[in-house]
Specification:
Keywords: Membrane, Transmembrane, Transmembrane helix. With 274 residues, the protein is mainly alpha-helical. 74% of the residues lie in helices and 0% in strands. The two termini are 19 Å apart. The protein has helices spanning 16-21, 25-37, 43-63, 70-88, 91-118, 123-129, 140-170, 177-209, 219-228, 230-239, 245-268. The longest helix has 33 residues, at 177-209.
């Protein structure tokens, strides 16, 4: 998911656990935990568990001889500060923090992603370098791929922040199914899927420039897994009364029909060479 294999072979075949630990999802998982657990009466637990995860991943990197990652270090600092703040502030401040911590965390992630690009070190690049020989680190395509993927993550965090703000400030309902869950989780899923898909596009582009006809992943490969999420969204809408019945049914029907139509279109479209 880091663009690590774009235009560059990997350094080996790490274990499944190693691949997980070497990906940016480890650095993002404490924030996901915070988003799931945040709420009235839960912020201490959310901050504590997120901090514990952050420390575990930092220690795991050091124990395996990996470099310290910007995201991992920020995780420890942010969640340690959050836990201390939660334990010290008065009930009024705590209630305010419980309301707005989702937006604060998402904006923090936007700043991390954008800031890392501004200093020419997109945060996914550090993870990608763990899996690619050093001689490939400065290839333009390798660098460009990580800028693109980091930019997509920044966009996902911004969408989540805006959705959360609308739910809290306008709807006055932080648990609204759409602004509090569907849109925010959907943005992360889109970023995850794009991060898995885009390196293949970059590899095909490099192969084409080198005179090798390597098929590029089709747009269907990106959209098909995303369309499948429409079914659980529709079910969730029906079960939790997230809107008119017809809307939930429409999501389910679309989630079944769109992947079928995409696969049919993919079979009738000649393979792209990138």
């Amino acid at each position: 998911m880091t663009g690590d294999s774009a235009a560059a072979p990997t350094t080996g075949s790490p274990s499944r656990l190693g691949r997980i630990l070497d990906g940016p999802l480890t650095g993002l998982s404490p924030w996901i935990v915070l988003g799931v657990l945040e709420g009235e009466g839960w912020i201490e637990w959310a901050a504590g568990i997120a901090l514990a995860l952050s420390v575990v991943f930092l220690v795991a990197d050091l124990a395996r001889g990996r470099s310290l990652k910007l995201l991992t270090v920020v995780d420890v600092i942010f969640f340690a500060g959050l836990l201390i703040l939660v334990l010290l502030i008065n009930p009024v401040g705590k209630a305010w923090l419980e309301t707005w911590i989702g937006e604060i965390s998402n904006i923090t992630l936007v700043l991390i992603a954008v800031g890392s690009m501004l200093v020419r070190m997109p945060f996914t690049l550090q993870y990608a370098r763990e899996q690619v020989d050093r001689k490939y680190w400065h290839l333009p395509t390798f660098l460009h791929t990580n800028y693109v993927i980091t930019g997509v993550w920044a966009g996902a965090f911004l969408v989540s922040a805006v959705a959360g703000f609308y739910g809290d400030a306008v709807l006055q309902n932080g648990n609204n199914i759409w602004t509090g869950w569907v849109i925010q989780i959907g943005a992360i899923i889109v970023a995850l899927q794009f991060s898995d898909w885009y390196p293949g596009v970059a590899r095909a582009r490099v192969a084409r420039e080198q005179g090798r006809a390597t098929p590029s992943p089709s747009l269907v490969a990106l959209l098909d897994p995303l369309a499948r999420w429409l079914v659980p969204i529709g079910i969730l809408s029906l079960v939790l009364d997230g809107g008119p019945t017809w809307l939930g049914i429409a999501f389910i029907v679309a989630g079944v029909a769109i992947p079928t139509l995409l696969r049919q279109a993919d079979r009738t479209t000649p393979a792209s060479a990138g």
